[in-house]
Amino acid sequence: MSIIVAKSLSKHYGTNKALDQVSFEIEDGLPTALVGPNGAGKTTLFKLICGFMAPTSGEIEILGHKAGSNSLISKMSALPQDSLLDPNLAIITQLTQFGQLQGLSHTKAKHEAIKVLEIVELTDAAKEKPTALSHGMAKRVAIAQSLIGEPELILLDEPTAGIDPSNAKTIRTLITEQRTKSKFLISSHNLDELEKLCDQVLYLDNGQLQQSLSIHQHSDSFEFLTLTLKGSENLKPIIKEIQKIPLVSNIVQTQSNELSLQYDSEHSLDFEVQLLTCLHKKQCQYQSIYKGKRLEDKLFS
Amino acid sequence: MLQTSEPSTLRNTLLITAFDVQKLFFQRRGVIAISCFSLVWLFLLIYPIHGAVELLNNPNFKDFIIGFAQMSQTEKLLNWQVPELTVYWVIALYLYPMFSIIITADQFASDKQRGTLRFLLLRSNRDSLFFGRFLAQMLIQTILIALSLLATIFLACYRDIDLLLPSLSSSGFIVIALIINLLPYTALMSLLSLHANSARQATLYAVLFWMLTSLGLAILNYFFPVTEFLQFIKPGVQLSDMLNTQGAGVLTYSMLPIIQAVAFLALGRVYMQRSAL
């Protein structure tokens, strides 16, 4: 089932083309990542999906409805970038009001507000005003509002940007927990984070869709394995040793201590055993073995 | 997904209205604003209104005014049964529009700048948001008018309890006339507040609007007298005529502000629908 369908979507600010003829389809399932450099058009695309602005040309359909349609209330929600709650109203009051606007009664809306605050572990801050919260806590409250009513689609625009590792981890955990209930579209610069959370990736640059790929999809009969070794000593001896493994078809050094190995996918287990034997033989310790290519390598190599 | 019925535009409009009214009466900022408003009216009631009533009860003063301003311009104003309401009417007619410009200046500006409107737009359409906030401002002003009028009636009854019935019969017309007068001011401020980045900027836009339209229309009218009708785009152009009215007569000039309000609301709605938030 298609969650979002964009056809020739363009948004121009004067002569600047923030989005230029972008077409894509996002299916239901695991979260989808939206990546790209600053100014690539990610936030503009989010705003068009949310109906905060109209496209210059093209069409966008969300869950079978036009962006900004009344039918999307309760079905779609978002964490808009750089948006703050009303500083004069208590958090619980505002979240209850949001629930009421989504069609819930006052009592149900209040229960729902408490429930989403529990999810982001901020029940204690319910009666506080947004000004009393730290940046990380404010972000979690903003994510909490997007969970009200368990919408089918949730857009998160840079959910962990500018917040400390502890809060970022809490946010990643809650997305992992919620991703079975809702479809997430997440924009972020943190590729490691997206790798853990998402399946599909849309790569935008200069307002154009450069790539649309699946993180966990393997190409043809070959599989990749990313081997990160401890320390950054000379890798030539170990590369020479790995090349002797008959199942290996290609080795690329991606970083000073990282190798990307291509091998025959039919003999995956045999290859892994042979690789570890090889490392043992050369008395070489590994830091990590990652099945597949890193997202960074997929996008930029 | 939690099962909910699709909220209607009307339901969400009324909810947004209720949220904004609650914000005024249950938040510290709102309570401070009401306290300031009450203090201003207390001052007006104790000094100008109470003082003027003594003068208006003096037949010699009445004769002097009639002779000075000509009978036709003041006869209805001076024949109000409750002198307190006469003075209240004169003050409220000019004071409330000024209040209106100040208190309705932040209908959208701060929330737009802060991004708060986006949280609401995810759950209601733009019409609900626009008209909900406009209605909230009208309701708040109605409450303020009612409060000040009740205080004036109390003042009149304190002097003479027999004035209660005539006061109540006139006050209904006064409330309706004042509310109608405030419609175009509030609608204009809805439009300006959508464009502005802060309440202060919206107020400045309002001042510019009145200065430029007054000056521009005066020049235009000087060279092209046929354009005199354009004066009617300015809210409050009927206020001086409304001064010398009485009883149900205060509603005589209601059509113009209603038309102005409809025009400003239509412009505001178009702006709201087209703007990026």
Structure, described:
- The complex is a heterodimer of chains A (301) and B (277).
- With 301 residues, chain A is an alpha/beta fold.
- Chain A has 2 domains: 2-214, 3-Layer(aba) Sandwich (Rossmann fold), CATH 3.40.50; 222-300, Alpha-Beta Plaits (2-Layer Sandwich).
- Helices cover 32% and strands 31% of the residues of chain A.
- Chain A is built from 9 helices and 14 strands.
- In chain A, strands 6-7-8-3-9-10 form a 6-stranded mixed β-sheet, sandwiched between helices.
- The longest helix of chain A is centred in the middle third of the chain and has 14 residues, at 106-119.
- The model of chain A has no long low-confidence stretch (mean pLDDT 89).
- With 277 residues, chain B is mainly alpha-helical.
- Chain B has one domain.
- Chain B has 12 helices and no strands.
- In chain B, α3 packs antiparallel against α4, α5 runs parallel beside α9 (164-195) and α9 (164-195) packs parallel to α12.
- The longest helix of chain B is centred in the middle third of the chain and has 34 residues, at 126-159.
- The radius of gyration of chain B is 21 Å and the shape is globular.
- Chain A binds chain B through residues 47, 50-54, 68, 70-71, 73-78, 80, 82-89, 94, 97-98, 100-104, 112, 145, 149-152, 182, and chain B through 1-2, 4-7, 9, 12, 15-16, 19, 23, 27, 29, 111, 114-116, 118-126, 274, 276-277.
How is this fold's topology laid out?
The complex is a heterodimer of chains A (301) and B (277).
Chain A: E1 2-13, E2 16-27, E3 32-35, H1 42-50, E4 57-62, E5 65-66, E6 76-79, H2 91-101, H3 106-119, H4 135-147, E7 153-157, H5 165-178, E8 183-187, H6 191-197, E9 200-205, E10 208-214, E11 222-229, H7 236-243, E12 248-255, E13 258-264, H8 268-281, E14 286-291, H9 295-300
Parallel strand pairs in A: 3-8, 3-9, 6-7, 7-8
Antiparallel strand pairs in A: 1-2, 1-4, 4-5, 9-10, 11-13, 11-14, 12-13
Chain B: H1 9-26, H2 28-56, H3 59-69, H4 71-78, H5 83-103, H6 109-114, H7 116-121, H8 126-159, H9 164-195, H10 199-223, H11 239-243, H12 255-274
Helix pairs in contact in B: 1-2, 1-8, 2-5, 2-8, 3-4, 5-8, 5-9, 8-9, 8-12, 9-10, 9-12
